[in-house]
Specification:
This protein is about 90% helix and about 0% strand. It is an all-alpha fold. It has one domain: Up-down Bundle (3 helical TM bundles of succinate and fumarate reductases), CATH 1.20.1300.10. The structure holds protoporphyrin IX containing FE. Protoporphyrin IX containing FE (HEM) binds next to helix 1 and helix 3. It comes from mine drainage metagenome. GO terms for molecular function: metal ion binding.
């Protein structure tokens, strides 16, 4: 794959992940309004989230989208500001993506299980 083609695909991934994030944000805000009425103590929150598969799938998707979006955005900014590019940069951004994915999915699992 040529570098130009790879950059185009990564840019598309960032755009699509941004669109998913915008939708997730709307659902998340609606969820916050609902949650405020239902109570915000740890017990009340866990009472709503435990065993709630749709909740887990939704926030899992949110985590996947941000794990794609944030490292790609950071990659563009690092390239622009520092000139860092190439394989080492790609590996560092992939590591960041895996870290965000791991921490995020672990957090979702902690409130859903
Ligand atoms: C609801 C959450 C978010 C939405 C809706 C969103 C949306 C967007 C959009 C529409 C763009 C422009 C994409 C393009 O020009 O193709 C963008 C760029 C960017 N986003 Fe996000 N974003 C969100 C969260 C985040 C988070 C949490 C981070 C980092 C921790 C982040 C980092 C970036 C960066 C660094 C860019 C600039 C990339 C560049 O200059 O090429 N975004 N975002």
């Amino acid at each position: 794959m040529t570098p130009a083609r790879r950059d185009t695909l990564l840019w598309l991934a960032q755009r699509w992940s941004a669109a998913v994030l915008a939708l997730c944000l709307l659902v998340h805000l609606a969820g916050i309004i609902y949650a405020v009425r239902g109570g915000l103590t740890a017990a009340e929150i866990l009472g709503r989230t435990r065993g709630n598969a749709p909740f887990g799938i939704f926030y899992g998707l949110f985590v996947v989208a941000i794990s794609i979006h944030a490292p790609l955005g950071l990659r563009a900014i690092l390239t622009e500001w520092t000139g860092w590019r190439g394989r080492s940069q790609g590996l560092a951004m992939a590591a960041l993506a895996v870290l965000l994915l791991g921490l995020g999915l672990r957090a979702v699992w902690a409130v859903v299980q």
